[in-house]
Specification:
Pathway: Cofactor biosynthesis; riboflavin biosynthesis. The chain is an alpha/beta fold. The chain has five helices and ten strands; from the N terminus they run βαβαβββαβαβαβββ. The two termini are about 15 Å apart. The model has no long low-confidence stretch (mean pLDDT about 95). Bound molecules: NADP nicotinamide-adenine-dinucleotide phosphate.
Length: about 240
């Protein structure tokens, strides 16, 4: 298996939360730094796509709607659906069961325009794959009953020529990749705010069936500040590339 270099780039509260009322409490600076580092032309990271978990996509782009599926759609050809794109970036959506109600095959995130690419498993229905084909949304199938993340990354490298990919949350997706040795670097934008909520997700979340709570250590690679915001970089010590 061959895979792209993976860096996990996230903004957190001071206590490691990735969503919640703390958002915005420290002004625009942390969000601007976060976007600059990984999405602007002169940013630190240059990548060909960013990975997001299904909940993150529903929260930000598809809003928990149900896709309009044709249960009588003719059988689609087996295997992956790879088509050309005009974009230089992919939004790589981890959607094992095929749940997300995409309205378009393009996604706009601030000034970034990206091609939507779905990562499915054998659990996704024929009707959902037909829906994606109808919308010109490419997909890859990685795993039969559950996600084979290594195979997905191999396909991103070999079918879509991705050399560097951002792991972009949420916490469940991040930790499942780290536990499998599939993350090389952590890039953390530490927002100088907190809200103390115990109900919001954190940077890394173990979930039964997807990951374990096995400890992982990190090696500090860099610390920089911008105003009150801190940017931390760590190498992940359990990566399968070492
Ligand atoms: N601060 C930041 O920088 C930042 C960045 C991104 C997201 N967020 C926030 O994070 C929150 C969501 O995080 P979250 O941890 O709850 O969810 P998440 O990681 O976005 O999504 C979890 C879902 O993704 C799928 N999934 C993830 N890893 C998988 C694996 N290894 N194998 C199979 N399926 C996998 C599953 O989908 P199914 O349930 O369909 O099986 C799982 O339930 C949102 O509030 C979002 O706004 C913050």
């Amino acid at each position: 298996m061959d895979r792209p270099y993976i860096f996990c780039h996230m903004a957190t509260s001071l206590n490691g939360k990735i969503s919640g009322p703390y958002h915005g409490a420290a002004g625009p600076e942390p969000g601007q730094l976060f976007y600059h580092l990984a999405f602007e032309k002169n940013g630190y990271y240059q990548h060909q796509g960013w990975l997001s978990g299904r909940t993150t996509t529903d929260d930000n782009f598809t809003f928990y709607k149900k896709p309009d599926l044709d249960q009588n759609a003719p059988q689609v050809p087996a295997g992956d659906f790879v088509i050309p794109t005009k974009f230089d970036k992919y939004y790589i959506s981890i959607d094992p069961h095929g749940r997300l109600a995409w309205q378009s095959n393009e996604l706009v995130y601030q000034t970034t325009h990206a091609q939507v690419l779905e990562v499915l498993t054998g659990q996704a229905s024929n009707a959902y794959k037909a829906f994606l084909r109808h919308k010109n949304i490419p997909y890859i199938i990685s795993g039969k009953d559950k996600l084979d993340a290594k195979l997905a990354l191999d396909k991103l490298k070999n079918l879509f020529h991705m050399e560097t990919v951002m792991l972009g949350g949420g916490g469940v997706l991040n930790w499942s990749f780290i536990q499998q040795g599939l993350c090389d670097e952590i890039s953390l934008v530490l927002t100088p705010a907190a809200d103390g909520s115990s109900k919001t997700p954190s940077l890394f979340e173990a979930r039964e069936g997807l990951s374990k709570a096995t400890p992982v250590s990190f090696t500090l690679k860099g610390v920089e500040t911008k105003g009150n915001t801190v940017w931390l970089r760590y190498l992940v010590n359990n990566t399968d590339k070492q």
